[in-house]
Amino acid sequence: LNKTVAKIDGAAEALKQIAKSGKKVLFVATKKRAKQVVADKAASVNMPYVIERWPGGMLTNFPTIRKAVKKMATIDKLTNDGTYANLSKREILQISRQRAKLEKNLGSIADLTRLPSALFVVDVLKENIAVREANRLGIPVFGIVDTNSDPSNVDFVIPANDDATKSVEVILDACCAAMQEGLEERKAEKVDMEAAGEGNANKGKRRASKARLDKSDEEAINASKAAAFIKEDEEA
């Protein structure tokens, strides 16, 4: 148990840094018991997830997956711009079914515009294709590893029972809480940077204003000197 806690802490800290850097972690859990928990936890930190069948080539053939996601957006556009009105009922039904299928399989990764920076896998044995794809691309894998699984392909191993919903939930709670911290720290840093930027801009304005005043003073002094010279010249 102590080993598991230590591993959770290590994984949570690494995930926090990924979230803080503004990168995405893709959660993967297609097993029935873990699906909803993973969907809820991943969504709570605005991270993409796969809880239906893993689409082969999801990572290694990412551009094709993106095309499918864009297809959803295209269908939505057809719905909104009135194109549907010119289609037959049969065509509308076919397109609607296609949209529903795409939504089911890819809806949760619609915002994933580039490859994720890490994978979080609940059952590394069941999701072995996802793990292999990540390994191939050098994407770090965080995984809940049960006694029947091989941890050699997992970068951050969390030894635990991946069949116990409560166990999975506790681990995800800890990891997602850390990620939330990372996101909040990122937000705070952004606010500080913006404030610093405004401060620098104000300093710049003050410097420019001072420079203008200095120039005005210099011009006034020069004008005064010139007037004095003219007066002296006239008196002479």
UniProtKB/TrEMBL annotation:
Its domain of life reads Bacteria
A GO-annotated cellular component: cytosolic small ribosomal subunit
For this protein, the record's PROSITE patterns field holds: RIBOSOMAL_S2_2
Keyword hit for Endoplasmic reticulum: no
InterPro entries per the UniProt record, alphabetical = Ribosomal_uS2 (IPR001865), Ribosomal_uS2_bac/mit/plastid (IPR005706), Ribosomal_uS2_CS (IPR018130), Ribosomal_uS2_flav_dom_sf (IPR023591)
Going by the UniProt record, its keywords in alphabetical order are: Ribonucleoprotein, Ribosomal protein
In terms of Pfam families, this protein maps to: Ribosomal_S2
Coiled coil, from the record: none
Provide the GO biological process annotations.
translation
Return the CDD domains for the record. RPS2
Quick one: where's region Disordered? 189-219
One GO term in the molecular function aspect is:
structural constituent of ribosome
NCBIfam families registered for this protein in UniProt: rpsB_bact
UniProt lists the family membership as follows:
Belongs to the universal ribosomal protein uS2 family.
The name under which this protein is listed is Small ribosomal subunit protein uS2
**Gene name, please?**
rpsB
